[in-house]
Amino acid sequence: MRGTGSAGAVQSGDVERLCAWLHAACGVLAGSERHGLLADLLSERTREGRCASARDYLDRMEAAPAGDAERALLLDRVLVHETSFYRAHADLDALLSVLADRPGGAPQPKAPLRLWSAGCAGGQEPFTLAMVLHERFGDAPFDVLGTDVSDEAIRRSREGRFDERQAAALPERLRARYLAPDPEAPGQRRIDPALARRVRFQVHNLVKDPFPGTFDAVFCRNVTIYFDAPTRERVLSGFRASLARPGFLFLGSAASLLDPPEGYDLMWEGESLVFVAGPAGPTPRIRAEPPTARSAGPESARRAPPAGDRILALSLRTASPGAAAPSAGVRAQLSRLLASPVRRIVLDIERTGWLDLDALTDLRRALRALLADGRRVHLVASGAAALRQARKIEPDASAPVFPSLAAAREGFEDTREASE
């Protein structure tokens, strides 16, 4: 096994124990492809911590409180902190679009916008969110919370200092306005102080700590992909309880129709898949420790509800020929919808705008495949343009058309009651 030194060789059992500690500490699963790197890190930290062996070091970590300096350093070294300014333009465009439909219009003193960037790493994402909000809403009230499980990541974020390579990811206009050269540190730039006052940072553990406040939108991009299914479900439920109504969740590449989370409707906004918080439910209980993973036996299988016993509502919003959908990415999501276990689907096309021939063909094929598979599909369309789209997508009228999402949902329940 890799990782030898004066403290002795690191054994495979030590690495497995480190992986178990990591999962218990922050919910992250470390795949076997990282075991070699973890062995090297464990050997290094054992020496630096002046421990007799990796086993002694792990004993120390398992007993360490949340504020322990060595524990914080180990977490910071293990976790992935990849991020950049202005990442995933489609999500930023989608954010501004859905906020434009927010009840009450622009933010007001009694109704400020509140955004949360969970897993913010070095702070680029929350600062980017503050930039795009300031560009759109000016001095209207808003604030952005950035959180991360890593103490070191939060320390760097609060400094608000970035090198030229990091700053280059921003469009030149935003870079000049919000990220000026730091006269005290050549080659570094500092976030504009007025913008920095709109952003606050705190250490937060998604699998252990209570979820903070109520937010209009949450960004947790490319974080939940490192969780196992029970942890992911618990975290997404926590986000739902922390979102206003309507509230929007952005998951980045982790967003998929293959395994859609409970309690959310879905929306394609341009090129972005957005999760929309459904009706408010009970706040989930965040356990002090994640539950021990157990294999699903016959008893748990009997208790589980049927996989398709839910309604998935999906809104498709496009505005113009320049933003026609589905794109190649959306087409990939259509194929995942076909592979998902959900049996009752609401497709809201009220705001699809203009669809080209390829888009219509893709939607028509997907709809027919769903119906042929025994799925039940309801369309939502009320305006003249949307009704025309509905006739093009489903000329045979095999999928009933309803004037609203609520009516489409009720239509499923009415049909179920009539059949019983």
Short description:
With 420 residues, this protein is an alpha/beta fold. It has 16 helices and 14 strands.
Quaternary state of the chains: single chain
CATH class of the largest domain: Alpha Beta
What is the string of helix and strand elements?
A: HHHHHEHEHEHHEEHEEHEEEHEHEHEHEH
CATH topology-level name of the largest domain: Rossmann fold
Mean pLDDT: 82
Q: Per the principal axes of the C-alpha atoms, what is the gross shape?
A: globular
Q: How many domain units? A: 3
Termini Cα gap: 62 Å
Taking all Cα atoms into account, the compactness measure Rg is 24 Å
Number of helices: 16
Uncertain runs are 280-307, 320-326
Biggest β-sheet strands, sense, barrel? 11 strands, mixed
Strand order, sheet with most strands: 6-2-1-7-8-10-9-11-12-13-14
Second CATH tier, the architecture of the largest domain: 3-Layer(aba) Sandwich
The helix/strand class is alpha/beta
